[in-house]
């Protein structure tokens, strides 16, 4: 995610920053048709030198005061006061209203872990309306459909997390494959696996599955 910005935005995808750990780098902004942040994320964007004029909106209840920049960026503010919803959820509702459906999220993990779990739960709520992908320093993760294939993943960490359970799951391309298996958060989950083929495929009949793939290749002993 270290590509340069070429200056022109022409895509239908959204880049959304929320208030977890600040990303180590930023993706190419020209890949996105909409760029936004929650009020809490605004602080680390400014601190890391993000071009704030590229933001299309800043949303939240503004309990995280943005200080002297308030007047400069006031035209980008969208005030959302509903205390029964998180800032992340309210930002996704705005994105839907604007007609976008593909959302890359940075800042979804790190910090207080109840926030991370809350962010996953919000993404689950929107999984049939939005294609949400989270990115952090270690992995990208998202809910996957019942028939799913991913390429170019050999030697990368793969984790399968049921939400809360998955039935009749079969995987190919993993070091520890499953054949018509079951996963459940109270009995068996599928974390810390890794891909032994360039292509990993997953099929399951029921439930919902959160899929993690590592950013970098990992070193495991060779299997003969």
TrEMBL record:
The keyword Cytoplasm is annotated on this UniProt entry: no
CDD domains listed in its UniProt record: TPK (cd07995)
Presence of keyword ATP-binding: yes
GO molecular function annotation: ATP binding; kinase activity; thiamine binding; thiamine diphosphokinase activity
Domain Thiamin pyrophosphokinase thiamin-binding intervals: 149-210
Documented EC number(s): 2.7.6.2
An individual GO BP term: thiamine diphosphate biosynthetic process
PANTHER family: THIAMINE PYROPHOSPHOKINASE
Protein's name according to its UniProt entry: Thiamine diphosphokinase
């Amino acid at each position: 995610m270290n590509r340069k910005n070429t200056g022109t935005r022409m895509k239908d995808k959204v880049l959304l920053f929320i208030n977890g750990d600040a990303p180590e780098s930023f993706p190419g902004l020209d890949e996105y048709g909409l760029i936004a942040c929650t009020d809490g994320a605004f602080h680390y964007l400014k601190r890391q030198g993000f071009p704030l004029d590229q933001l299309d909106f800043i949303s939240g209840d503004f309990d995280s005061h943005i200080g002297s920049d308030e007047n400069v960026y006031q035209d980008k503010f969208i005030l959302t006061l509903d205390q029964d919803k998180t800032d992340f959820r309210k930002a996704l509702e705005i994105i839907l209203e604007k007609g976008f459906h593909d959302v890359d999220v940075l800042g979804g993990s790190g910090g207080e872990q109840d926030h991370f779990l809350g962010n996953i739960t919000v993404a689950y709520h929107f999984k049939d309306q939005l294609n949400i992908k989270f990115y952090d320093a270690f992995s990208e993760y998202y809910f996957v459909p019942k028939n799913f294939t991913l390429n170019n993943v050999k030697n990368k960490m793969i984790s399968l997390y049921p939400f809360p359970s998955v039935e009749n799951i079969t995987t190919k391309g993993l070091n520890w494959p499953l054949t018509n298996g079951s996963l459940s958060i109270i009995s068996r989950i599928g974390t810390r696996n890794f891909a032994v083929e360039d292509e990993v495929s997953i099929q399951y009949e029921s439930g919902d599955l959160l899929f993690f793939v590592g950013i970098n290749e990992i070193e495991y002993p060779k299997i003969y």
